[in-house]
Each structure stands twice: as structure tokens, then as C-alpha cells.
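Researcher: Please predict.
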Amino acid sequence: MITLIVPTRNRAHTLSLIGESFYRLQLVDEIIFVDDEGSDNSAEVIGAIAARHPQIATKILRNERRLGASGSRIKGYKAAKNDYIMYSDDDVYVQPNYAAVCLKKLRLTGAGIVSGRIVRMRVDQTPEQAIAAFGNGTSDKPPFRKLVCETRGEAKTDGDVRLPLTGPVILTTKALLEELSYDPFYSRGNGFREETDFQMHAFVTGRDILMTNETYCAELSRIESKVGGQRTPRLKTLYWSIYYNAYFFGKYWDRYAARVGVTMSRRTATALFALYQLYALFIRPFGYKYQRWAARQRERRAASRPAYQ
């Protein structure tokens, strides 16, 4: 059987929307929520959902001081009773077969970590509508950006794909967690790289990381998930992302680059990542806004043209 671990902080609202999906997961008989010094009524929301599913053991662990998501992940797996551990974010709907499919892949392939696909929902969509619209992806670009060490979640892929990193909703073993663990360094700010640190540690020590198209999870829209977690304003996000990535590259870049065949130096890669983050946070969003504005203008012009018989 499988233990699901959900780090959370002030996400009572999102848990009320997606929490039931955790209790529908096949093969999961234990769920551990780790409340990272939150101040809302998350415990009450979790308790109400758990009461409807008494066949699944539920634990709510609380950090009396902020440990960040990485520290909460560590606390969770240390309290787990099962040999297989699944992690999920606290704003993600998970398909009922997610854990079972990932476990099957883990056993068949010998991979160290397995995930399904993750989809971003629009506020007007149900999870299943978002998953159906997404299919096997929406972008023809490669599923991984090697030079900035980032997964492209929207990439089209077929079957199972081996990647250096995957999404946040993963299945692994308690033995691997005990060997490699998460790094509690990522405890402040936005905690950038906290979830990928364990994945990269596994990758550079020779483990395979598998992403399969056979199961999905769907992340709530930003409108439904405005607060909680480790959100920070945009300028602070830029600072912490660069800060934590420099630490992350310092730990892993040389071994990572050797395994994926990148010849760029760590310092150059660190500088490139900083420029990429600046673009992603401050330039690309305005490009998307312009594209949406231009599309609306085209629709209005088309609607105003006279219809010819």
C-alpha cells in the first residue's frame, strides 16, 4: 500500500475543493497532511473530509515553526507506515488511478521516481474537462529545457518519457527518501527548487525519473488558489528563484551536465538561468497578454464585418 503526503500552509480553501480526490486514490491507505505553521482552518477542513473516509488513516502533523515545504516533506515520510510514498501539492486534483499507475510503472521499469501528467485548470473547467482538453500535451517543444534545467509541462509526449525532472506529484520509495531525502535549506521565501532537489539528487546518482501519459492530475487556477503555500510577490520571487537555483546548481550541475551531455559551465548556466527568470517573470507574461488582446481584436473585427449572401 501507499502513503500520500501533502505539505500545506493556509490552503483550507483549495483543500475543500480537491481534498476528496486524495481519498479516492486506489492503493492509498494512509494520508499525512503536514501543516507548516498555518493559521487558517485547514485542520477542520481535512477532518471533515477524513470523517467521510474512515477506511483511510489520516494524520495531521503540525510544524510549530516554519520548515518550508521541503522540511514538511521530510517530516511526512518519516511518519509514514508504508514502503511507497506519494507526494502531492495541496491545490491539485488527482485522478483515482494516479497512485496505482505510478506504482505499476515504478515496479515494471525500476525507476526511482514516477509521475503522471499535470494540467493547469481554467476557472470555468472541471478537472476532467481540463484533462480532456490537454490530451497528451499542447506544445510541440521538447519536454525539458536542458540549459535552465526545467520541465516543460505542456509538451506533447507519447507513452512513458524519462526526464531529469518531472512534476510535483510523484511516487517513490521510502528507502530512496531515507537515502537521499529532501534538503531543508529551501525553507524561506518561495522555496524554489525544494521539490526538484530530491529528484535531481536521484537523477545524478543514476536513478531514472519517469513521466507517464496514463494518468493525470489537475492544478487549480490561480484565481482559485490565490493565497497560501509559499507564494511571494514577483520581485521577491525573482530574488529567491535565483538564490535557490545558484545553490541547486552548485550541488548538482557538473553531474547533471555530464549525464545529459551539456558542456556549459556552472557559472554560465547560473547566469543564463537568472536571465531566463527575468524574462519568464517580467517579459513573457506581457507577451501572453498581448496575444490575448490581439486575438480579441481579431474576433471583434470579424464580428463587425457584414455578412455576404
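Model: The radius of gyration is 20 Å.
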